[in-house]
Task: structure prediction
Amino acid sequence: MFDLPLPIHSTTYARVVPPHFSSDDADHNHPFALTLSRRAPADLMSGRAAPLVLAHFATLAVAMQGAIDHAEGIAPDAAPQLLAILDRDERLVLAGAASDGAVAWSHPVISAAEARGVVTEASQLRALACRTAAWCEPYLAERLRHRADLLDGRLVDPLWRAFAARALQVAA
Result:
């Protein structure tokens, strides 16, 4: 019924420790921050759901390469991790799922109308996930939530939409 490209594994175990980035990535004045989503139930309940900043980068291209470097440090059997690149004002520039040495970037929406459609679809998926969890189908519920999170990754800030789309074209 649902065609999801990535296998979803339970996130009840500890997350993989982020790899060490070079010392020049520690400069917090760089405009792009590579972040890791913390969506585990324990993080949500404790109020620590804010993304974990892995490193700061001077350019979007270097931040994208940093995401790929991070993905290479993920164990092959580990659950996909949701990565996001944020600008200095914490606006979403680009997001994607990292697993098995690669990052599947989410293509940004191109208009406000498309953004509304994505929000509607993600909300419907989360509602369906709640219902499937009540039906004692936790694996399916987790897959639906993950799909909704991937859709949310398309909601790039309007300031960055065209730039991010172009960056993905160049990277391909």
